[in-house]
Write a structure and sequence with these properties.
Elements lengths: L3 H15 L4 H8 L3 H8 L7 H11 L3 H5 L9
Helix pairs in contact: 2-3
Length: 76
């Protein structure tokens, strides 16, 4: 089974690149370091629920999409 941390990491990286953002840019949005974003994208760490919500709002996707519970990006 594909680990959920990897789904979050893959989707965050994909969205970041689609929006032409750096890991530092995402770090600024979440008030964390670039290293922490790198660790999330590598699947080494996860993030807080609060940061997950911030990411979903920023990218206009659902938290379910970020977590891999849905393939539908649309935030409803």
């Amino acid at each position: 089974m594909y680990h959920k941390n990897h789904i979050l990491s893959d989707r965050l990286k994909e969205l970041r690149k689609e929006h032409n953002l750096t890991q530092s840019d995402i770090g600024e949005i979440l008030h964390v370091s670039k290293v922490q974003i790198s660790d999330i994208e590598k699947g080494k760490k996860t993030t807080t629920i609060d940061n997950l919500v911030i990411l979903a709002q920023y990218f206009k996707v659902s938290t379910d999409y970020l977590l891999g519970l849905s393939d539908d990006r649309e935030h409803k």
